[in-house]
């Protein structure tokens, strides 16, 4: 007589890294990252390496192998306007897609959001920020301002100690990204070795080269539905070369500010021309930024060092 037996499914012998990659939507994250940020090849390479580590970690867990959760706290160093906040946003998407955080959620803060001005004020402020960020990514820009040893009455150290506790005790439910200038972050970590030991990934964001800045400008122009002719592109190349010689240049941020001022000059040119005629203007004129709108900048008139407010 045959005895029916319950057959257990055979153990999983392999895992599809490609399927895990697709299910997490990683390709979409990198597609958006490439569309949003020109260049940054070393940064994007490092993010892809982290993604590969996390996919393999998921595969190990799927096959029942020992998979110690990797440390995901990070430090982004570089000058302003190099894409640190944008990369942090995409990292939140990636970590959420892979199941390492509960929410596709980024909370971006500075010292003022964490440190109080009197005794008993810092702890509740810092804990409130941590509560909002829990389950996602906490991005702390210019993190070195948390530590001010020259001021004995400063409460930044209290915020650091609370952050340290959260980074250790809630590391399964919170990813912290510290950001700022590299030289200042190096000093900050030397002064706070407890923080440094909890950061697994240090990613440096390089400044953009002139050709990359031009590509960024042209991308921004297209997104704003403007157009540059050949003469305007040539003028913009000259503008970038001159502006790079001046202090306080903030990479993509300065390019965006410059384009805003070019749009301002274009609008005034169109308005003056319209008032002198019949007041009519067509779509082609509204979309066109010409070389005069660029060369009217004081950067051309006076190439001596100037502040970020240079028009």
Characterization of the model:
By secondary structure, the protein is α/β, with parallel strands linked by helices. It is about 55% helix and about 10% strand. The protein has 15 helices and seven strands. The chain has helices at about 15-25, 25-35, 40-60, 85-95, 110-115, 120-135, 155-170, 180-190, 195, 210-225, 230-245, 250-275, 285, 290-295, 300; strands at about 75-80, 105-110, 135-140, 175-180, 200-205, 225-230, 290. The chain has a five-stranded parallel beta sheet with strand order 2-3-4-1-5, sandwiched between helices. A two-stranded parallel ribbon has the order 6-7. Helix 7 links the parallel strand 3 and strand 4 (about 175-180). Helix 6 (about 120-135) packs parallel to helix 7 and helix 10 packs across helix 12. The longest helix has 25 residues, at about 250-275. The protein is globular, with a radius of gyration of 25 Å. The N and C termini lie far apart (about 95 Å).
List keywords for this structure.
15 helices, 53% helix, 5-stranded parallel beta sheet, 311 residues, globular, alpha/beta
Secondary structure layout plus pairing:
Blueprint: H1 17-23, H2 26-36, H3 41-62, E1 74-78, H4 84-97, E2 106-109, H5 111-114, H6 122-133, E3 137-140, H7 156-169, E4 175-180, H8 182-191, H9 193-196, E5 201-205, H10 210-223, E6 227-228, H11 230-244, H12 252-276, H13 283-287, E7 288-289, H14 291-295, H15 298-301
Parallel strand pairs: 1-4, 1-5, 2-3, 3-4, 6-7
